[in-house]
Design brief:
Blueprint lengths: L2 H59 L2 H9 L6 H26 L5 H16 L3 H8 L5 H18 L1
Helix pairs in contact: 1-3, 3-4, 3-5, 4-6
Length: 160
């Protein structure tokens, strides 16, 4: 075997080894990306759960349910009570808006989104929510405003 043929053979082996190395590298990167995505989704889920717990604790520790009952019975509430109710509702609304945004990015699965849609519908049906939403909707993403407005219209139609 002459020197040129030997060099050609070495070059072919080098190309083959390089191609195999590229395939292994791509497989490794794919696995790393998948693991990273799972980890990020788990962290996001944990954060959503913590936020839900905080909102529930905040609602449970305050007298918001009593304020809602007063509004439902047609009673007037004090400006202080209205402010409490507004704060709880706007915080919850922001939470759901964030979930809506994450859903639009494909970061929330259908099962989780459906469960949160029930929460959004329940929130929209609460006494005083429509007024609070109208006051605070201007800082909310338009696509989420549209969703909430559609739900509020459905609720209004069902009450007729």
């Amino acid at each position: 075997m002459d020197q040129q043929a030997f060099a050609q053979l070495l070059g072919n082996y080098g190309e083959f080894i390089g191609a195999v190395a590229v395939v292994f590298t791509l497989a490794f990167l794919t696995k790393q990306l998948r693991d990273s995505t799972r980890s990020a989704n788990a962290a996001a889920h944990s954060q959503r759960t913590s936020r839900n717990i905080d909102l529930m604790r905040w609602s449970a520790d305050s007298d918001v349910d009593e304020i809602r009952e007063q509004i439902d019975m047609g009673s007037n509430v004090s400006p202080r009570d209205w402010s409490k109710l507004r704060a709880v509702n706007l915080a919850t609304l922001r939470h759901f808006e964030d979930l809506h945004y994450q859903r639009s990015l494909g970061l929330i699965d259908t099962e989780t989104w459906d469960a949160n849609m029930r929460g959004i519908r329940n929130m929209c049906a609460r006494p005083g929510f429509r007024e609070i939403f109208e006051e605070g909707k201007f800082g909310i993403r338009r696509s989420f405003q549209t969703l909430v407005e559609e739900i509020l219209d459905e609720i209004k139609t069902q009450k007729r």
